[in-house]
Design brief:
244 residues, mainly alpha, Ferritin, 80% helix, elongated
Length: 244
């Protein structure tokens, strides 16, 4: 196989691998949509790691394409979280969104400065396109929701997005990056992604706890109402019997 054919083959293989992971995430999100409709307001747990096998090279072959993937991660994260800043109803969800906007904006600026210093510009790849496709699916899901349903959907999207970010860094970018300063930045970004993932999971646990408490309170209230109604009925029956 000559060099040109090999490059074409590798790009196609990377694109297919990236598409496979992207499709798996969309499928999971779709299944959760069904859960929302069939299970009412109950919040379902999210997975920690993204589905599917690790991607091959993800179509990434240079430091410029590494920058392209990282730029896509930052840009989509900021855009999605700005929506959450305006639509979220809970303070902890809004705080999570503000954290994402602030830190991903700062990281994007840092990478742009590093790229200028190294003479590198962001270039697209199958992996960066996969990130953007996932972000579009997440955004569509968020636009269709409001209130508590929006809060749940946003937190779930954060968990999946950061789990995928770590997977892409581990299985694609870390094996490609050459520049030592960019490699250092990549290691720090992976650590930050882990911190963001943990924060999103903590907010999800709070949502689960509150949802469970609300369900228990509702059930208790309904039982009390039924009991009171039954007592009034019994008293009325005894009164009627006595009057005869």
């Amino acid at each position: 196989m000559d060099c040109r054919r090999r490059r074409i083959f590798e790009r196609r293989r990377g694109a297919l691998a990236a598409l496979s992971l992207s499709s798996a995430i969309v499928l999971v999100m779709s299944c959760r949509d069904v859960d929302d409709k069939t299970r009412g307001e109950r919040l379902e747990p999210a997975f920690v790691d993204p589905p599917g096998a690790p991607m091959d090279d993800g179509g990434v072959h240079s430091d410029s394409q590494v920058l392209g993937v990282l730029a896509a991660l930052d840009a989509t994260e900021v855009a999605r979280s700005k929506i959450a800043q305006s639509k979220a109803t809970r303070d902890d969800v809004k705080d999570l969104a503000t954290m994402m906007v602030t830190e991903h904006t700062a990281n994007d600026e840092r990478l742009k400065t590093l790229g200028q210093q190294k003479g590198l510009s962001s270039e697209p790849s199958a992996s960066s396109e996969s990130v953007e496709e996932d972000a579009e699916s997440f955004t569509t899901r968020l636009e269709d929701r409001s209130g508590a349903a929006f809060d749940r959907a946003y937190v779930e999207s954060e968990i999946m997005a950061h789990a995928k970010a770590r997977s892409v860094i581990d299985h694609v970018l870390s094996g490609v990056v050459v520049d030592p300063d960019l490699k250092t930045a990549l290691d720090e970004i992976r650590e930050a992604a882990g911190t963001h993932l943990e924060r999103a999971q903590a907010v999800r646990r709070a949502l689960l706890t509150d949802a469970s408490s609300t369900t228990e309170e509702t059930s208790s209230s309904e039982e009390t109402s039924s009991s009171d109604a039954g007592s009034r009925f019994d008293a009325g029956s005894r009164f009627d019997a006595g009057s005869h």
